[in-house]
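Researcher: We plan to redesign the surface later, but first we want a full-length starting point. Tokens attached.
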């Protein structure tokens, strides 16, 4: 059961994308929905208003939860940053995608979420903390100067 939950988010995004592609190829011209995936480190269920936080005010997240989709039973593939993010973007557990240690890289031959979404005509942007690599495997448009990394730790520039 845990396996199903770990891959739920990328699976949902891919299923939605497939459904959208089916609609556009069947002659129907539906406007594609905007898809925004928020990820944060060390964020627990009680850190935002939609999940019961009383000590912080999150009106924009509250509105997104009311008007969009809220996940109530999600699990991470790993307790560490890079393996968890890589699992979401590849749809594979860390030992399958190659990034099982923190600050490690996935296998070069993988096709990832940005590949699939771009094929469907989406503009795929990543802003903020990236901690994934190598860059060619994750063909996001990276928002300049938004990834904060310690000096000498820019793992996304390629394999060394």
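Model: Full-length starting sequence:
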């Amino acid at each position: 059961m845990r396996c199903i939950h770990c891959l739920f988010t990328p699976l949902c995004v891919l299923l939605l994308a497939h459904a959208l592609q089916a609609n556009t190829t069947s002659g129907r011209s539906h406007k594609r929905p905007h898809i925004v995936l928020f990820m944060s480190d060390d964020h627990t269920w009680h850190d935002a208003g939609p999940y019961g936080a009383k000590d912080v005010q999150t009106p924009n997240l509250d509105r997104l939860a009311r008007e969009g989709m809220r996940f109530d039973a999600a699990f991470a593939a790993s307790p560490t940053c890079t393996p968890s993010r890589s699992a979401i973007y590849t749809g594979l557990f860390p030992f399958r995608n190659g990034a099982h240690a923190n600050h490690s890289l996935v296998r070069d031959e993988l096709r990832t979420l940005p590949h699939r979404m771009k094929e469907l005509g989406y503009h795929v942007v990543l802003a903020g903390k990236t901690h994934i690599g190598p860059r060619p495997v994750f063909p996001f448009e990276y928002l300049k100067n938004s990834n904060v990394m310690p000096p000498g730790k820019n793992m996304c520039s390629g394999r060394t």
